[in-house]
Design a protein that fits this description.
- With about 290 residues, this protein is an alpha+beta fold.
- The protein is about 15% helix and about 35% strand.
- Strand 6 and strand 7 form a beta hairpin.
- The longest helix is centred in the C-terminal third of the chain and has 12 residues.
- Pfam families: Glyoxalase_3 (PF13468).
- It comes from Pleurotus ostreatus (Oyster mushroom).
Length: about 290
Amino acid sequence: MTSPSTNTLDHIVHLSHPGALDETISRFRELGFNVIPGGTHADGLTSNALVIFEDGTYLELLNFVKPAASYPAGSPERAKRDSHPWAPKNPGWIDFAFLGTGEDKHSGGTGVISEIINARSKDVRYLGEVAGGRETPAGKILKWLITSPAKQHGRGVLPFFCGDVTPREWRVPVTQENTAHPNTARGVAYIVLLVSSDNLALLSRQVTTIIGAPANHVDDELSWSLETIRSTRPAGHLRLRSPKTEEEQSFLDSNIDANVGIYEVGIWVDAGKSKEPASLPHTRIVWQSIIN
């Protein structure tokens, strides 16, 4: 059996303040994105909306339904809310996912993706699959398996993997209507991870282990090609570098993880449609023209 890819971009996660998802949806629509309803996740803590691209990738606009303080202190509900991996995150780009598998756990308790990555190097460790899901506004129940990096790596530093148990088109309905964006967005051109210079070499080795291919070096930046579910556009890239400007250093200093964070997302748009970068609160988007 052919081993699954470990560098296929699935989606990028954007976090809003609790209860502020509608405001974020409005802001993304003002930027020319077509945003469709997502639903409520199985744990009841978060809800989302989706920006789906024709290459099968998407942006997940997510928020916690309620602030932590709305759950009684010391209650199981509060403990569940506080222990959520995205609970400590600041609003903005917080995480990204590669496509995983929907296969059951192996008898040894490890998962398909984690076995592949963990066998490559001791620099990085992934855990076994954990079940997840979401109910759509229409009442359809979606199910998937999540493979996450071990706790010591943090969340939003290395990708997690999302593998569908129910058909992927239920989770990501790639239709002409859903992928038609007024701003002509076609897909994700790149993700920029900023990292402190002290941690650059280690993170580079870890990303190389996950993707299974060495980085390309361009000036002071490292870059890896990413696959997509549908090869309709030029390849996207995961880009890694240390801060070059005061603005980038300020972003890194304010990040909850202190030494790494998703600083910028590039979006493919039709030739001639690129414009100035969009800087929503805590969110930077750069438009990348497709050269035919």
